[in-house]
Amino acid sequence: MYAASADNVRHPQPFRAYPIRGLSVNATIVEAICATMSIPSHFLAVKIGRIQRRFVGGPLGANNPTAELLKEAENAFGNEKRLVQIVSIGCGVPPALSVEALISESGAGRLLREIPTECETIAKDLGTRLINVDAYLRLSVEKEIGQIEMTNWASLEEIETHTACYVETPAVIRALERSLKRLKERVGTVTVAQLSKCITCDHTVVPNSS
After folding, report:
1. Rg of the chain's alpha carbons, rounded to an integer?
2. Number of domains making up the chain
């Protein structure tokens, strides 16, 4: 999980459940979840730790933290560690973002519209770069959910309906079945170094390793 320090929203802060060299935030799972959801315009910053550091959700540049995840894996486990599966879960494909909408909205409204747009832009880029990598799975409802406003938190039935339709499509079913098979077999097909190289180089294709 990633949030951001209230004093520097451009610096993503990982919340870990395992030891790693360097500074780490000793947060409970509830504190970490609340921090990732703490959009300043809707929720107060979450105070964590002995000195009560304040954290908010939506670190700029890391709302989709897949690239940050790979850096974390390299630091924690080494670049030759083989990965079985990376699962990226989106919040729905956002509607088109027009110039007129940005101009007419307040700063808070603009931020809330830009966050899912940023997530989806990163996801499309990673999907292109990792198209031949079986270890990468992106799940995000393609229609409708991206248009539900955060203030409509009571629309859980609508969200569940659209999600159920999405996961029942043949392409998603096949992707989930392949993912479950890899998780059961627990055999990594690509190293952290290979994935990182694929993400940082425009024309690199990562081969599957046996």
Report:
1. 18
2. 2
Can you give the residue range of the structural domain that contains 12?
Answer: 2-56
Instruction: Tell me, yes or no, whether 50 and 93 share the same domain.
Output: no
Are 75 and 49 found together in one domain? no
45 shares its domain with 142: no
How far is CA 158 from its chain centroid? 22
C-alpha distance from residue 99 to each of 23, 110, 113, 147, 202 (Å): 41, 11, 12, 17, 29
pTM above 0.70, yes or no: no
**Residues of 11-32 as b/e, b for ≥16 C-beta within 10 angstroms?**
ebbbbeeeeeeeeebebeeebb
Residues 48 and 76 in one domain: no
Closest CA to 148 of 196, 209, 206, 95: 95
Where do the DSSP E strands lie in the chain?
A: 2-5, 8-14, 46-48, 53-56, 82-83, 86-89, 136-139, 190-191
CA dihedral of residues 85, 86, 91, 92 (deg, nearest 10):
-70
- 128-147 residue pLDDT tens: 777 777 888 888 887 656 55
